[in-house]
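Propose amino acids for all 350 sites.
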């Protein structure tokens, strides 16, 4: 895709910023036809926004419509935040309504943060969201089940961050219940925030690489593999220059979430327990969500199949004990669970 050409007259937009509270749009939305190398109208002015919701690829607007787009996205963000704050604390709202408002606000919050990485107010605002989600999901398996169902499929570029965060929160609650981890409320919040921001460095990766549908060249792969360091630098600078309070756990997750137990990860090729435990936990949630996510370049697989892949094809990449608990939490309750129960006793391959 020739993004450089596209971006001279057209602007890549994030549809999540528009979708929640509007039925019609005051501007046109385009897709890009890679074969014919031209823009194609996806939704005209005043078309129902449902057309946009069904489309999975990147979408663009004319640069002339940027002001209208920004107005709508600000309004949408405010409405989602107010709706979340009202719904999540209300005794009159059902679990389904709470989960829906959580997703609507979480989506636009992640998109806003990743589109405006230099705004420390958004990061501070995230603390409130995370606290509410931890409290909402704590130990309630109906809530956990609803959240997991919501993470099964997605089309948005940045929803992955939200999904990894929600899976991670569920997983942390389970590890606390099983007494595998003992964490204070503050430590849980710190881990949750790290999960939420784990891929923040991706904003520095050019869209023509980040959104590429085909195989990556060596140079493109090297570029993508810089995102943990870029994300770490971004938040580290915020701590120093903008007085944003973040703990080492946040930074560990961002910096080390692509390291693997056998040393095959990046960027440092750390091995085993040299990888901080919070990053080991994030790596399982990250890969699991990548497998179940519906992307333009691959179809998703269901949750149980993803657990099978983690165990049968990837288990040497992850912390054994953490993977065992993860599969007991989310995997099919059959032969695989039995294998998993015995798995942590097995000898590591020489
Ligand atoms: Fe990542």
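Proposal:
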């Amino acid at each position: 895709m020739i993004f450089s050409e596209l971006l001279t007259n057209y602007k890549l937009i994030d549809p999540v910023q528009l979708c929640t509270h509007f039925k019609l749009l005051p501007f046109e939305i385009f897709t890009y036809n890679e074969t014919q190398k031209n823009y194609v109208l996806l939704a005209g002015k005043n078309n129902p926004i449902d057309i946009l919701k069904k489309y999975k690829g990147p979408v663009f607007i004319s640069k002339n419509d940027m002001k209208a787009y920004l107005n709508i996205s600000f309004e949408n963000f405010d409405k989602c935040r107010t709706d979340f704050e009202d719904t999540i604390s209300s005794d009159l709202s059902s679990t389904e309504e709470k989960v829906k408002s959580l997703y609507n606000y979480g989506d636009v919050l992640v998109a806003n943060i990743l589109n405006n990485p230099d705004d420390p107010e958004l990061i501070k605002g995230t603390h409130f969201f995370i606290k509410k989600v931890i409290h909402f999901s704590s130990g309630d398996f109906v809530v956990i089940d609803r959240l997991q169902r919501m993470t099964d499929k997605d089309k948005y570029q940045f929803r992955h961050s939200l999904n990894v965060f929600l899976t991670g929160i569920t997983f942390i609650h389970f590890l606390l219940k099983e007494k595998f981890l003992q964490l204070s409320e503050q430590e849980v919040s710190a881990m949750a925030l790290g999960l939420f921001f784990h891929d923040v460095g991706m904003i520095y990766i050019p869209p023509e690489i980040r959104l590429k549908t085909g195989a990556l060249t060596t140079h493109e792969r090297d570029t993508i593999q810089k995102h943990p360091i870029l994300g770490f630098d971004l938040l580290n600078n915020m701590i120093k220059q903008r007085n944003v309070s973040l703990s080492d756990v946040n930074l560990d997750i961002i910096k080390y979430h692509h390291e693997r137990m056998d040393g095959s990860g990046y960027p440092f090729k750390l091995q085993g327990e040299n990888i901080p435990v919070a990053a080991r936990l994030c790596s399982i949630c990250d890969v699991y969500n990548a497998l179940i996510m519906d992307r333009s370049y691959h179809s998703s697989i269901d949750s149980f199949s993803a657990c099978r892949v983690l165990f049968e094809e990837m288990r040497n990449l992850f912390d054994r004990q953490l993977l065992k608990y993860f599969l007991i939490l989310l995997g099919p309750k059959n032969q695989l669970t039995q294998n998993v129960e015995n798995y942590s006793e097995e000898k590591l391959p020489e």
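The chain has 16 helices and four strands. Residues 151-155 have pLDDT under 50 and may be disordered.
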